[in-house]
Structure formats: C-alpha cells, structure tokens
Amino acid sequence: MKQHMTLWDYVSSVFRILIGTFMAAAAFSFLQYPNSIPTGGITGIAQILNMLIGTPVGMMAIAMNVPLFLLAGRKLGTVFMLGSLLAMLCENSFIDLL
Fold first, then answer.
1. CA distances (Å), 70 to each of 23, 46, 49, in order?
2. Which tens digit of pLDDT belongs to each residue from 85-96?
3. pTM recorded for the entire structure
4. Cβ distance 46 to 25 under 8 Å?
5. What is the pLDDT of residues 1-14, one digit of tens each?
6. SS in 3 state form for 23-67?
7. CA 92 to chain centre
8. What pLDDT, on the 0 to 100 scale, is given for residue 94?
9. How large is the angle between the packed helices 57-76 and 78-97, nearest 10 degrees?
10. How many CB atoms lie within 10 A of CB 65?
11. d(C-alpha 39, C-alpha 23), whole Å
12. Which whole-number Å values give the CA distances from 38 to 4, 52, 96, in the listed order?
C-alpha cells in the first residue's frame, strides 16, 4: 500500500539531502581532494580530469551524470529520480563552492 507524503515529509527529506550532501562535499573538498585521493564513480573520474586538464570537479560530474539520470528516470520513477537529482546537483555544487 502506497502512503502519501505530507508537506512535512517533503521538507524533511530535502533538508536531510542538503545536510548529507554538504557533509559529503566537505569531506571530499577538505580530506580527499587535497590529499589526491580519488573517489570512485563519476566524481572520481571528474577529479582525475581536474588533475589532468583543470576542469571544475563539480561541473564535470554534473555533466557526466546527465545521461545516467535520463535513463534512471524511466526505470526508477519520477519522485526517486528528482530526489537523486537534487542530491547530485547539491553535492557537486557544494564541491565547487567549498
């Protein structure tokens, strides 16, 4: 049985996404990146490209994630995709801002 989310549920979910992505971006910006420890996945590829050609890590990760989100939107549903998209955009924006 599907439960309907209230406005508070949405606000709470967005707040948790913002806090979590800020913490992840801070860990990346202050611990991993300065010590040249690449992460896995798209962010790791973006970090390696940054080291080689100087592209911003966050913007490159966003650009590489777009095709994945287009595919995932059909398979996982709109609500899940929008939450994931918010998390990806926030984390990568925080990485570039920190």
1. 26, 19, 23
2. 999 999 999 999
3. 0.84
4. no
5. 467 888 898 899 99
6. HHHHHHHHHHCCCCCCCCHHHHHHHHHHHHHCCCHHHHHHHHHHH
7. 5
8. 95
9. 170
10. 20
11. 15
12. 40, 13, 16
Output the CA angle 94-96-98, nearest 5 degrees. 65
Task: Calculate ∠ Cα 37-46-73, nearest 5°.
Answer: 120
Sequence length of the chain is 98
Output DSSP code: residue 75: H
Cβ atoms of 62 and 91 within 8 Å: the answer is no
Looking up tokens 């606000």 gives: 11
Task: Label residues 27-48 b or e (16+ Cβ within 10 Å = b).
Answer: ebbeeebeeeeebeebbebbbe
Assign 3-state DSSP to the chain and report helix, strand, coil percentages, each to 5. 80, 0, 20
